[in-house]
Design goal:
Blueprint lengths: L2 H14 L2 H9 L5 E2 H8 L3 H13 L3 E6 L2 E6 L2 H14 L4
Antiparallel strand pairs: 1-3, 2-3
Length: about 100
Amino acid sequence: MNDHDVEHVAAMLKTMAHPIRLKILCLLQDKELTVGEIREEVKTTNANVSQHLTILRNKDIISFRKDANFIFNKISDPRILELMATMKNIFCPGD
């Protein structure tokens, strides 16, 4: 890896390393979710979830689509899906 790649990966991992953002990514592995659905699982406020989603969007880790009054969030980078699956296999066997 060259220095630019190392910096990019380090920034992405730093973004993902926050407990709430990591939990959000775990939730988004299998399906799209709205802010409300994420809030219910993460047990925090809509505003807090929205802040974390914005951070993840700004790093192009997740994306969203609008459908009527709902905004559905999903992991947009297939490498993140692979990383999340690997972490789940290593750290959460049996889930």
